[in-house]
């Protein structure tokens, strides 16, 4: 295509094309102006600008009338597809803006992935069936943050533990979701219930996360605080493996409530003296205005609330205060 003609085409606007179609359909500048809400002079200027851009005469102008030329007729025919395409684009964009359509990538690791993510995805999909919902599988909880920072995921689940420093989340927005206790699980240590301190388990073998993991750091910190060194018998970062080892009587473990599972042969022991807490948060980029993120947060809140209901009757024991609560900022949402 000639460079000058290509440059001229770049000045053709949707307003110009719409004016041409209105003049052809109404047969006069004044009727077209009335239909589009412009003055007759403005419509005339738009047609003239379109003719200059295209380098052809689109209408024959008489003292009291206009007649469309062959070029004008052809432009009218071609513009129908153009306007239909623009209307289609506008409809698609409205779908993205309203979250009826769009793409959302979620990520989570650990117990939040197992207990909350499936429920949340189901909630989002039921509300936005035309949206494309996918999961990004991280290797560790730290990978969740990196995936969101790098743009590989849109929203994810992260954890903040009371004895460990909070992560630096520059450029990211966090939404508190759950506040949960960490409890001891075992098999041969008596029925489920409350224990005053983790010191009550000082002589037990422990199942713990890998060396240097958050779980490992917390257990060491609590041991130092209570004056004993936990004896680690087995290590795993998989909550299912940890529960399996506990189920076989190979040790006890300190786990968050979301990691309890449903094995009734395992007992749980709630610590009443300076309990350890974990805060579950949702994370997304501060610059990401994807409207599906708001729906995802709502779905995670509903998933968390469903899990709260389950914990009230889990393990056949009732406590005066819940072990896990929705963050106060989200209660009632």
Automatic annotation (TrEMBL):
The record's listing under InterPro entries reads:
LysR_HTH_N, LysR_subst-bd, WH-like_DNA-bd_sf, WH_DNA-bd_sf
Listed PROSITE patterns? HTH_LYSR
Residue ranges constituting the HTH lysR-type domain according to the UniProt record: 12-69
Keywords (alphabetical) are: DNA-binding, Transcription, Transcription regulation
Q: Does the keyword Lipid biosynthesis apply?
A: no
Q: Name one GO molecular function term.
A: DNA binding
- Pfam families in alphabetical order: HTH_1, LysR_substrate
Output a single Gene Ontology CC term carried by this record: protein-DNA complex
State the similarity comment: Belongs to the LysR transcriptional regulatory family.
* Name this polypeptide is given: LysR family transcriptional regulator
Which organism does this sequence originate in? Answer: Brevibacterium aurantiacum
Q: What is the lineage of its organism?
A: Bacteria, Bacillati, Actinomycetota, Actinomycetes, Micrococcales
């Amino acid at each position: 295509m000639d460079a000058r003609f290509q440059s001229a085409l770049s000045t053709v606007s949707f307003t110009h094309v719409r004016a041409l179609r209105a003049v052809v359909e109404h047969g006069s500048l004044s009727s077209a102006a009335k239909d589009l809400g412009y003055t007759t002079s403005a419509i005339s200027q738009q047609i003239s600008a379109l003719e200059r851009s295209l380098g052809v005469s689109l209408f024959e102008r008489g003292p009291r009338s206009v007649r469309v030329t062959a070029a004008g007729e052809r432009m009218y025919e071609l513009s129908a597809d153009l306007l239909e395409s623009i209307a289609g684009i506008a409809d698609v964009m409205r779908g993205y803006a309203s979250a009826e359509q769009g793409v959302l990538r979620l990520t989570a690791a650990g117990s939040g992935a197992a207990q909350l993510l499936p429920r949340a995805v189901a909630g989002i999909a039921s509300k936005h069936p035309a949206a494309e919902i996918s999961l990004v599988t991280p290797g560790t909880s730290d990978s969740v943050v990196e995936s969101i920072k790098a743009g590989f995921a849109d929203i994810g689940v992260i954890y903040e533990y009371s004895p460990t420093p909070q992560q630096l989340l520059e450029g990211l927005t966090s939404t508190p979701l759950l506040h949960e206790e960490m409890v001891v699980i075992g098999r041969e240590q008596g029925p489920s219930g409350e224990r005053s301190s983790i010191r009550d388990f000082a002589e037990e073998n422990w199942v713990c996360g890998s060396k240097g993991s958050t779980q490992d750091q917390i257990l060491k910190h609590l041991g130092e605080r209570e004056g004993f060194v936990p004896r680690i018998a087995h290590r795993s970062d998989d909550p299912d493996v940890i529960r399996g080892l506990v189920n076989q009587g190979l040790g006890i473990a300190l786990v968050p409530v979301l990691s309890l599972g449903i094995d009734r042969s395992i007992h749980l022991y709630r610590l009443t003296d300076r309990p350890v807490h974990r805060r579950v948060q949702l994370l997304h980029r501060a610059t990401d205005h994807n409207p599906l993120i708001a729906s995802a947060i709502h779905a995670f809140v509903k998933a968390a609330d469903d899990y709260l209901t389950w914990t009230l009757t889990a393990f056949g024991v009732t406590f005066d205060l819940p072990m896990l609560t929705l963050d106060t900022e989200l209660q009632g949402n």
